[in-house]
Amino acid sequence: MTTKTTKRATKKVASSSKTMMNKAELKASIVKHLHCSLGTDENKANNHAWWKATCASVQEHVLEGLRKTQKSHYLNDTRAVHYFSAEFLMGRLMSNNLHNLGLFEQTEKALNELGVNLTDIMEEEPDMALGNGGLGRLAACFIDSLATLDLPAVGYGLHYEHGLFRQEIQNGEQIERPDSWRDYGNPWEICRPESIQDIPLFGYVETKYGENGRINKEWHPGHIVKGLPWDIPVVGYGGKTVNVLRLWQSQSSDYFNWDVFNAGGYVDAQTENVQAETISKVLYPNDETQAGKDLRLIQQYFFSACSLKDIIRRYKRAHGDDWSRFSEQVVIQLNDTHPAVAIPELMRILIDRAELDWDYAWSICSKTFAYTNHTLLPEALEKWPARMFERILPRHLEIIYEINRRFMDEVEAVWPGNNEIKRKLSIIEEGPDKMVRMGNLSVIGSFAVNGVAEIHSALVKKDLFPEFNHMWPSKLTNVTNGITPRRWLKACNPALSQLIDGKIGQDWPLNLDKLKGLAEFAEDAKFQKQFMKIKRDNKVQLAKEVMALTGVEIDPNAIFDVQIKRLHEYKRQHLNLLYIMALYRRLLENPDYDMHPRVFLFGAKAAPGYKLAKDIIFAINKVAEKINNDARVNHKLKVVFLPNYRVSLAEKMIPAADISEQISTAGKEASGTGNMKLSLNGALTVGTLDGANIEIAEEVGDENIFIFGLTVAEVEALDKKGYNPFDYYDNNRELKAVLDWLDSDYFTPGKPGALSSLKRSMLEGGDHYKVLADFTSYCEAQSLADKAYKEPERWAKMAILNTAHMGKFTSDRSIKDYVERIWKLDPCKVE
Ligand code: KOT
């Protein structure tokens, strides 16, 4: 009996369920959509049309699942989590949806019989790049896991017209081009005009004295904009639960424009139009730096307010005006402080609209929100000028002052008379220009606060919020990040997935700890061969892609050394570059220098206003050009910068990586998630003891990872003592030589000094991120990696053990941690 149930369960995930279409029906459905939705036919259709027709067929299943899920959640009146995030970096959806529905193979065959290649048509899909990097991709992995675990959840965010810019490289430099992901429509989204929301902005607050002595505040907004929701169904693995990602698009509000229009202000009415629509026009391309612009705060308020209204509408449908159960039914997770204005917004609704008293409103509010911190970098911690806040959200600023006044009383009770601590914990930073600190607001207004890896959470407690941790010792906690193994192994590395299926069965995508079963084959010669053959095949594929994208030929027998992430000084792409230059020098000095041929592959976007980050991209490209064209070395060393790094490119690079560069300054990378994806696909990490690298090392064992560099404690000690980069420059000949090389015109003929800004940042600039201090140790780790690669069996064993020990890093585990420690949610099965 038990065996039977298990078998059936396994089958459910491996193949499409009975209600799904068989191959013949799929074929018919795709052709029907070709004819009836797209107005073309099999003979005329191009890949784009086939892609759209296939999406439409798949979407029929998706919507059926969505309907059933919503019905089930409604009937069960479930508690749900609402994941508020300014970013969801979804990438492409076709392959994911097919895999999660169990329809991939069926569809592949159906299309084949129609003379169409599924892989080819999937290339037609533009990435949904509504995020910058780690934070946005984490949100995407989390909503996949929430649906997979049958948890009632809604993702809330912004429906940006333009996602993260498209990167072109011209003469080595990054050029930003607009991303127009919806130019040809998005077949996965559904517009819901019936759920439009009106959002007030600007204006002033009127104080009214009520009969019962109650002071009422009335906000008279200066503008009203409309929020139009677009729903993107999120299919869980197994295809049962289909949750929703609801993204808000801003529109001008008719009712306001008509006033202006009727008064004869036709042109002004148009201006109003443009302004309102600007709100969701474009994603700010800054990763871990605050944009500090009016429009950014308006974006944050716009999507938070739309989402709260949506939640409240749904709550009221079930519970009317009885607010007593609100925080039992609703939990809101704030993905960093970007949606933190939702806290005063909920207070405003409860006090000004529902007319609850402050204490009752606050008791509801502070049981509803939880906050995830993603960074300790000071430049990323959001604070808004109080005057700007007041102009845009006058009532919210009043509420924030009141939250703060009451909180200061609590601080006084814990540290009587200590003004220093009050100054530090206050939501308002005093000074010539008062600032609203969104981090403090988030901690005060949330019942739980988490960091994203053990070390990061420890630093949040020790360095960022020590006094808050003293006041509320159980509020601050850790939830280590994770990644969805459906996208990041099953879908992106089908050959490895099938090999794994054959060895340990097919249920690892739902139970990633099962990968441990591979460990017993780590020394099995046959398995090693199979594993490394797949890696090599993936490298051949990537080499073709590299040729197509850059014209550079790379040898699949070389080590593929991959660093893919946003460009930031703390991530230290320039440390990698210095090592490449050192290897180049060694090869020039000694053509027989013993090293296994290596290709360094980069993918990285720099924030458009981040000068040094752009200079680093330029430097990588110039060094690459020189090396790749230098016949003395290019059989051993190549460097490739792949333009326009994004989710769909990551899906091609990760399965082909041998080495994963995770080389941030210790204490700076909160977690990292690319580290997990690469290791899961059998790449070995060269990394510092930072973020989740530490936990990866714990899982794979010190012998299966190349750890180097200063630890967090050592970085702190060095700073205390006084760090002087010249100590390293003056005492390391090789390091001095490569840094001086940057000043020459060797890499930029006729333009000496074109790469000097890098050198300056690491010397006169103070080398904030300790590149020089870690250089020697990094070179040693790289030599060890080279040595290991020259022993194919040893390397294969290490690679297999990396894949085998990644179980902890499934986002399903992260979500289960959130559920147990923070959200207290029950799954709701959908029949
Ligand atoms: C961006 C702007 C403001 C505040 C924080 C960020 C931020 C942080 N963006 N991405 N992060 C990254 O988040 C990832 C997911 O938690 C982490 O793995 C990574 O280390 C952060 O840098």
From TrEMBL:
Question: Catalytic activity, per the record?
Answer: [(1->4)-alpha-D-glucosyl](n) + phosphate = [(1->4)-alpha-D-glucosyl](n-1) + alpha-D-glucose 1-phosphate
Family recorded in the similarity comment: Belongs to the glycogen phosphorylase family.
Which InterPro entries does the record match to this protein? Glycg_phsphrylas (IPR011833), Glyco_trans_35 (IPR000811), Pyridoxal_P_attach_site (IPR035090)
Q: What Enzyme Commission number(s) appear in the record?
A: 2.4.1.1
What does it do? Phosphorylase is an important allosteric enzyme in carbohydrate metabolism. Enzymes from different sources differ in their regulatory mechanisms and in their natural substrates. However, all known phosphorylases share catalytic and structural properties. Allosteric enzyme that catalyzes the rate-limiting step in glycogen catabolism, the phosphorolytic cleavage of glycogen to produce glucose-1-phosphate, and plays a central role in maintaining cellular and organismal glucose homeostasis.
Q: Which NCBIfam families match?
A: P_ylase
| The UniProt record lists the keyword NADP | no
Tell me which UniProt keywords the record has, alphabetically: Carbohydrate metabolism, Glycosyltransferase, Pyridoxal phosphate, Transferase
Q: Does the keyword DNA repair apply?
A: no
> What is the official name of this protein in its record?
Alpha-1,4 glucan phosphorylase
* Named cofactor requirement(s): pyridoxal 5'-phosphate
What Gene Ontology molecular-function terms does this entry list? 1,4-alpha-oligoglucan phosphorylase activity
Which EC main class describes this enzyme? transferase
Q: Which domain of life is it from?
A: Bacteria
